[in-house]
Design a protein that fits this description.
Blueprint: H1 2-10, H2 16-52, H3 57-61, H4 66-77, H5 82-88, H6 90-117, H7 129-141, H8 144-155, H9 159-183, H10 188-195, H11 200-239, H12 242-252, H13 257-287
């Protein structure tokens, strides 16, 4: 290597060190140009958005803490009402959790089917792998709130549009994660089952699922936490649950801010409890031991 470098230097060509630093300088130049373009686009986009907002951003940014302070101060004055309001909103929170649970279950089952049909080496129809992967991409690309708004327009408000919207998005997200986990499965059990005449469903059920089930359930539990937040947000646009109550409390405005704080307390407690429970079970599934 030293002789080759010396030979290149004697021949007038660049050494390996010089070529390396030249490549580093070129990459830094490209990175700087891209960063400059990004900053210009960000500034231009912000100015355009501010102009379309009648230039109200800079005048309104100074009042960013005014509304939260009003909410907190009113809730502090009515602190005695908070325990009763928390209990009052528990049924709505239960509805929100039910929406998240059902949508996670339905989306997870559909995600399993899409994952097995889109995993190389396991797919029932290998030529259709690209089709099933694009289906999952489309499910993930459309936000839940867009699907929910369309369904509300078609079938009306309530928890059903939220459940369907979250289930569709969940199927796309979990399908991708499930497929990546299935790609790392050991193929020897699958090949052994195939050698004794097992069908495709039998190979998946007996050869693949036992290997990937802990990771799949861990992903599903994590998605359940995300779906609780998503169902609360969708309730804000008329899909039922605690989000709908939050919307009503905000619409009433001053005088009902204690309800807003109570709803946030219920949401916070629920998410913390679900997060702790699912974290324990995820560790138990993946690591084989309780935290």
């Amino acid at each position: 290597m030293t002789e080759a470098t010396a030979g290149a230097a004697r021949a007038g060509g660049p050494t390996i060190r010089e070529a390396y630093f030249a490549e580093v300088r070129r990459k830094r130049l490209y990175g700087g140009v891209l960063l400059a373009i990004f900053i210009v686009l960000m500034v231009a986009g912000f100015r355009l958005a501010d102009d379309r907002n009648a230039g109200g951003f800079w005048s309104g940014i100074l009042n960013i803490f005014q509304f939260p302070s009003e909410v907190v101060s009113e809730a502090a004055e009515k602190a005695a009402n908070l325990p009763g309001l928390v209990v009052h909103f528990i049924p709505s929170m239960v509805e929100t959790v039910n929406i998240a649970a059902v949508s996670t279950l339905l989306g997870g089952l559909l995600g399993i089917v899409l994952a097995l049909l889109s995993t190389r080496g396991l797919a029932r129809w290998p030529r259709l792998i690209g089709l099933f992967r694009r289906m999952m991409d489309g499910m993930r690309a459309i936000p839940e709130i867009v699907i929910a708004l369309v369904l509300i327009f078609i079938i009306g408000g309530g928890p059903v549009p939220a459940m369907i919207a979250i289930a569709i998005h969940t199927a796309g997200a979990l399908g991708k994660l499930f497929s990546e986990a299935a790609e790392n499965a050991d193929m020897k059990p699958v090949e052994g089952l195939q050698s004794v005449g097992a069908g495709w469903l039998q190979r998946m059920w007996l050869g693949v699922l036992p290997q990937v089930a802990p990771n799949w359930i861990s992903y599903a539990l994590l998605r359940f936490e995300i779906n609780i937040r998503a169902s609360a947000i969708l309730g804000f646009v008329g899909s039922g649950g605690i989000g709908y109550d939050l919307r009503i409390a905000f619409q009433w405005g001053q005088g009902r801010y204690d309800e807003v704080v109570a709803i946030f307390i219920v949401l916070f407690i629920t998410i913390v409890v679900v997060d702790q429970i699912s974290s324990v079970y995820r560790d138990r599934l993946v690591k084989g031991a309780m935290r």
